[in-house]
Specification:
Elements lengths: L34 H16 L8 H4 L9 H5 L1 H5 L3 H7 L34 H11 L75 H61 L2 E3 L4 E3 L9 H56 L3 H6 L40 H11 L31
Antiparallel strand pairs: 1-2
Helix pairs in contact: 7-8
Keywords: Nucleus, Ribosome biogenesis
Family: Belongs to the NOP53 family.
InterPro entries: Nop53/GLTSCR2 (IPR011687)
């Protein structure tokens, strides 16, 4: 009977331990070395057959806790087991002095830890004073009064030698504060004419609650012109803001369009380089596989991308320049509009007489005192339909407190301030009490 022998060849997949290149048939998946994976699977199967994986078992199955100990050790080593440990001897030793009780007791000797300041006792007699009293009791007086024949005349004139005067150092705490030099100067008026403004300006007939028709009509026309000029200025400012926003939006749209065109051109050229050619009505896909690009082709693509990047940067720069030009143009138009409006206001103000400026406080000079401007004067004007014939139905206009405050500012006696609605609160600091240290055992 012939003897059966095991095959001489290996059943495992051919091993390729080194793969310097992944090109060719040698780099195919079937030639990859998987012996390490197969060995791991075999070890896992053996561990499962023997009872399971060790790292998946609980600690109770792997370890046992010995709480009794081995009784044979004390028999084999009686010398070592009978001798106690040094730590046990130290703990067993007890002192004769009782331990300090840590309980808290209420006692008068308990203090808060603050050492009181020492004070000299004044309810006892010193040794020096006691010696002096004993000498006095024995008849020995240290100070005795001796009478002489010379009688002092208190009314006699005596020459007293003059001592050189010593310059005393002035005490800063007792020295009187000196007033500044400006307190003696007259306050500077803030009126446009520079003349002094009276504390209470005498109102004209147009401010009356029952004015004459010509004066009331003139004042109404004047206030109407002021309101119209202010409204025109506001509308001009809104128009300038609108034009500025439109220019910004237009420039942003142009920048987006330029960027989109650059991206589109880049996509078209990339599609050509990838092997797709746009042929008019339909796209023809080449059947040939694209070959590897040579260095000349790579350099050509690199130069093309750099040129596209440069063109895109130039387009963005042109858009920014256009935006700057538009902003300069709008700023110039707004400046010219403001100058024309100021000229119109100056001409309207020049028509008024100098006498009216001296008497009223409407015109304020341009350079004011302090950082803040003089508050505007309230418009105290009653419309024609609000004029009342009876004083019983009269509604008072104005605020005396505001008028007094504005008058003081115009006369240069006060500086304009800004109203602060909220007072600055003090910063609170949170700390933790140390009462948790007072514990009991």
């Amino acid at each position: 009977m012939p003897v059966l022998k095991a095959p001489t060849g290996s059943a495992d997949a051919p091993a390729t331990y080194k793969q310097p290149s992944r090109k060719g048939k040698k780099a195919w998946r079937k030639n990859v070395d998987v012996t390490e994976v197969q060995d791991g699977l075999e070890e896992l199967n053996e561990a499962i057959i023997k009872g399971g994986l060790v790292n998946e078992k609980p600690s109770e199955e792997l370890f046992a806790l010995d709480t009794v100990g081995d009784s044979s050790i004390s028999k084999r080593f009686p010398k070592h087991t009978s001798k106690p440990l040094k730590s046990d001897e130290i703990l067993a030793a007890r002192s004769v002095v009782p331990a300090v009780d840590s309980r808290k007791r209420s006692s008068s000797k308990t203090t808060d830890g603050i050492v009181p300041a020492k004070r000299l006792r004044t309810n006892y007699v010193t040794h020096k004073e006691l010696t002096r009293l004993r000498k006095v009791a024995d008849g020995h007086h240290e100070l005795t009064v001796e009478f002489t024949d010379d009688v002092h005349d208190p009314w006699a004139t005596s020459v007293v030698e003059k001592q050189p005067e010593v310059e005393a150092v002035p005490d800063i705490r007792t020295e009187k504060k000196k007033a500044p030099k400006s307190i003696a100067q007259a306050p500077i008026s803030l009126a446009a004419s520079g003349k002094r403004v009276p504390a209470v300006v005498k109102p004209t007939g147009a401010f009356s609650y029952n004015p004459s028709f010509p004066e009331y009509e003139a004042r109404l026309a004047e206030e109407s012109e002021k309101a119209i000029a202010a409204e025109k200025k506001r509308l001009a400012q809104e128009e300038a803001d609108r034009l500025r926003q439109e220019a910004a939006a237009r420039s942003a749209a142009e920048a987006e369009a330029a960027e989109a065109r650059a991206q589109l051109s880049e996509w078209e050229e990339d599609s050509e380089w990838e092997g797709f050619q746009s042929g008019g009505e339909e796209l023809k896909v080449s059947n040939k596989r694209p070959e590897r690009k040579n260095p000349q082709q790579r350099n050509r693509i690199k130069r093309r991308k750099e040129e596209e990047r440069r063109l895109k940067h130039e387009a963005k720069t042109q858009v920014k320049k256009a935006q700057l030009e538009e902003i300069k143009k709008l700023a110039k138009e707004a400046r010219e509009r403001d100058q024309s409006l100021a000229l119109i206001q100056a001409e309207a103000a020049g028509e008024a007489s100098d006498a009216s400026l001296e008497e009223t406080d409407d015109a304020v000079r341009r350079r004011q005192l302090g950082k803040y401007k003089v508050p505007e004067k309230d418009l105290e004007l009653v419309l024609p339909d609000e004029l009342e014939e009876s004083l019983r139905r009269l509604k008072p206009e104005g605020n005396p407190l505001k008028e007094r405050y504005r008058s003081l500012i115009l006369r240069g006696k006060l500086e304009a301030r800004r109203k602060i609605p909220f007072k600055k609160q003090a910063r609170m600091k949170a700390t933790e009490k140390w009462s948790y240290k007072d514990f009991q055992i």
